Amino acid sequence: MSKQKSEYAAVKVFAPVSIGNVSVGFDSLGLALSPIDGQLLGDIVEIEPIVIEKNTKSTFELCGDFADRLPSDKESNIVWHVLEAFETELLKRQIHTTAVKISLHKNIPVCSGLGSSACSIVAAFVALNRFYGEPFGDHELLMLMGRAETKISGSLHYDNIAPCFLGGMQLMLNNQDQATLSLPLFNDVYWVLAYPDVMISTQSARVLLPPNYDRSTLIRFGQNLAGFVAASYRQDQKLAFNLLKDEIAEPYRSELLPNFTSTKSQLQKMDSLAVGISGSGPTLFSACDNLQAAQAQATWLEKNYLQTEQGFVTICQADSVGTRSL
Question: How many whole angstroms separate alpha carbon 104 and alpha carbon 79?
């Protein structure tokens, strides 16, 4: 039987973790992060061409530190659905598709509050786009990523997708022509992330939120978010982090995290600029303006916040790059 060598080259893409909401911006702010020790905290997707034979079909492989927390069959994995969605879009443009081996290196836990599903989705779309010679622009990709994320979380929001893809701090816009706006970063801030290893799904966390909010809450939310954005452009770090308050979700979700209230109080005593819930939790974040405070908090969290050996604490800074090839 004759075999046909593929005209495509293999690609490998990494997508970083992100903090959704960032306390002050429910469904509106997201921040991409990278550990200061240089490790890659996020997911990796590889696309490899398959030598073509008759009836050759694409295959899927799941590996990585947290692969055992996902079903192994391809039909249950979001990356496989991304492949199908991407190929559908290619066919609309009459672009030829080929059989591939798509591999997901799942290196962050699902339902962690660190944009786990976004990491997989973004890495897969970017890898496929580069494999096929980049037929889609960033805005088109972002729209496709948002649709895929909706299948996981149950609603359309880009607060993990956008920073994971584009890097930095992203402000979501209700605009079809431009979905997100990059905000100036506070580059000298250290972000301590603590994942305790308890299960909280985005959908279950959303159920806890009230269907309506009173006027005073909405006014405070708007003032804090607008003030934070303005302070970011002015590079007024003190004002920005004084406004980093969660009026929408934290009052209702804090009970889902282990000893969150007392932990937050302790970190504030240890010179935290702000403490909050990353996304829907259970990861919490603490922002510090010096490395010594961040290291002291990380040590305390390792001893007092983690619930299992698979929990972890890491010190990060803003990731301005976003998703990239390896």
Answer: 7
What is the rounded average pLDDT of the residues 175-181? 87
Each residue's pLDDT tens digit, 89-98 = 999 999 999 9
Tell me how far apart the terminal alpha carbons of the chain are, to the nearest angstrom.
35
Neighbours of 211 (CB within 10 A): 4
Token pair 């920073």 in the structure block, residue: 163
Written as one string, the DSSP assignment of 164-186 is HHH-SEEEE-S-SS--EEEEPP-
In this prediction the pTM is 0.94
**C-alpha angle 81-85-89 in degrees, rounded to nearest 5:** 170
Complete domains list, the chain, with CATH: 11-184 (3.30.230.10), 190-317 (3.30.70.890)
Q: Which of 149, 124, 101, 115 is nearest to 14 (CA)?
A: 124
What burial letters (b/e) apply to 242-257, b meaning 16+ CB within 10 Å? ebbbbbbbbeebbebb
Residues 82 and 104: their CA atoms lie apart, in Å, by 12
What are the tokens at 159?
């607060």
Smallest CA-to-CA distance from 104 within 64, 76, 154 is with 64
Handedness of CA 67, 72, 78, 80 (dihedral sign): positive
